[in-house]
TrEMBL record:
The lineage of its organism: Bacteria, Pseudomonadati, Pseudomonadota, Gammaproteobacteria, Pseudomonadales. It comes from the Bacteria. It comes from Pseudomonas graminis. InterPro entries: Delta_60_rpt (IPR013431). NCBIfam families: delta_60_rpt. This is Delta-60 repeat domain-containing protein. Gene3D superfamilies: 2.80.10.50. Pfam families: DUF5122.
Length: 455
């Protein structure tokens, strides 16, 4: 069988492979089952890298779960399946994990939002849980917050709510009830932070007033809110005029612990990409873009930022969703790089967005971006021609397509349907979730692809 360059499968009988080939030894059968949910790999190491799979729960009988898996994909007995407890027992508050902060000492702080249902309505608040992984199996670190868990109060006053995006302009006679939007952002945040305060972002939705609001949350190492930050540790982000319809879809944090938000806004009946950078004290960074904000436009198209990766020095890699006005609803994608000051980086494709013409479809549902340890950019999604088969493109740090990865830096996997999740393992290898139409019944599986040629 040998190496089939058409679909990237490499036979076990011939271990020679090139970058992008599917690893048919992964998981013992070339894939791992039961990884349909978001996952990340351990950012503290490139070797023996544990895979964390995060499942969102809905109730006490269906809690949120973090599963630790070995590099082979098998469940790691040293971590196990950790069902997260209620963030508050009396409120039966379920945790929705949207980010993990690793401290190099075996502790992981999980941040996100929590779901609280009472007789008066359904509410969502920022929340955090800390996990201790040095024991077997992993457990909740009861030295953090209230027995390992914390809920952070949000100012639901009219003034605070008005900082959000008014989606319907209803009358203001109804009391605000916060509800969550879809789980979190474009990617699960994973950062390494040995000590100090933790800063994260959360997105909440007020179903009664139809206001979507965004909040920065700052907590201490012990889980307590940093009371000098915002109101009791929570700062509501202004969204500008309702007509602008500003929505933050992803965020990243640099080594200065500044947080860069990325998303979209409306202007003159068009959509544009928007970024904003806040310093660790919650103020717009005047050295970034135009007084802390940067706008991304592409002539003749609606554009927004689907995903952002922020490097330690503040440089930002953007995955753009591009809807050309003449494309009749067909979505295309592009990659762009900004320098630490929010300006177009001329060292990447001459400062222009790099359009990925071979990848696209009718929506942005099947496209994801990751960086490997050589700062090569991997974009995985759906082939633009078939609008069905999985496709992957690798881009060099200077914005050129990687000639060692398929043809012109891109490969189609016609044995798989569009990629749904993406991660990096062992520095350069690629983990991706896709649907295999050849299995009965059709399954969504986790696959591994070689990042380098080898034998």
């Amino acid at each position: 069988m040998g190496n089939d360059s058409r679909n990237g499968r490499t036979s076990p009988a011939n271990a020679a492979h090139v970058a992008g080939d599917q690893d048919l030894q992964f998981g013992g059968s070339g894939y791992v089952r039961y990884v349909r949910d978001p996952f990340i790999t351990d950012p503290t190491t490139d070797t023996d890298q544990r895979i964390y799979v995060i499942t969102y729960g809905t109730s006490g009988s269906n809690p949120s779960v973090i599963v630790g898996r070995l590099p082979t994909g098998a469940v790691d007995p040293a971590f196990g399946n950790l069902a997260l407890p209620f963030v508050d027992d009396s409120l039966r508050a379920v945790m929705d994990v949207q980010g993990l902060i690793f401290n190099n000492d075996g502790k992981i702080t999980c941040v996100g939002i929590t779901d609280v249902t009472t007789e008066s309505g359904r509410y969502f608040y920022p929340a955090a849980v800390r996990i201790e992984t040095s024991g077997t199996p992993a457990a909740i670190d009861e030295g953090f917050g209230n027995k390992g868990r914390m809920i952070y109060e949000v100012d639901l006053s009219k003034d605070a709510a008005s900082c959000g995006v008014d989606l319907s302009h209803p009358d203001d006679s109804r009391a605000p009830h916060i509800q969550a939007v879809s789980h979190g952002f474009g990617s699960i945040r994973r950062t390494v932070q040995s000590s100090g305060d933790i800063l994260f972002c959360c997105r909440l939705f007020n179903s009664n007033t139809q206001v979507e609001s965004y909040h920065l949350v700052k907590i201490g190492e012990n889980g307590d809110p940093v009371t000098s930050f915002g109101t009791n540790g929570v700062l509501t982000i202004p969204a500008g005029s309702p007509e602008r319809g500003l929505q933050w879809l992803d965020y990243g944090i640099d080594s200065n612990r500044s947080i860069t938000l990325a998303g979209r806004g409306q202007v003159s009946n068009a959509t544009e990409g928007v970024l904003a950078r806040y310093t660790s004290d919650g103020k717009l960074d005047s050295g970034f873009g135009n007084s802390g904000e940067q706008i991304i436009k592409i002539e003749g198209a609606n554009v927004y930022i689907k995903q952002v990766t922020v490097l330690d020095d503040g440089e930002a890699i953007l995955l753009l969703a591009v809807d050309y006005l003449q494309s009749q609803g067909r979505m295309e994608f592009a990659v762009m790089k900004l320098d630490k000051n929010g300006k177009e980086d001329a060292s990447f494709n001459g400062g222009e967005a790099l359009l990925l013409s071979e990848m696209g479809g009718i929506s942005d549902a099947f496209v994801f971006m990751e960086l490997d340890n050589q700062e090569r950019i991997i974009v995985a999604g759906q082939d633009a021609v078939s609008e069905q088969h999985a496709r992957m493109t690798r881009i060099m740090p200077d914005g050129t397509l990687d000639s060692e990865f398929g043809i012109n830096g891109s490969r189609t996997y016609d044995n798989l349907n569009g990629f749904r999740k993406l991660g990096i393992q062992r520095g350069t290898d690629i983990l991706a979730v896709a649907q295999d139409p050849n299995t009965l019944p059709t399954e969504v599986l986790l696959f591994r692809f070689f990042g380098e040629a080898g034998s």
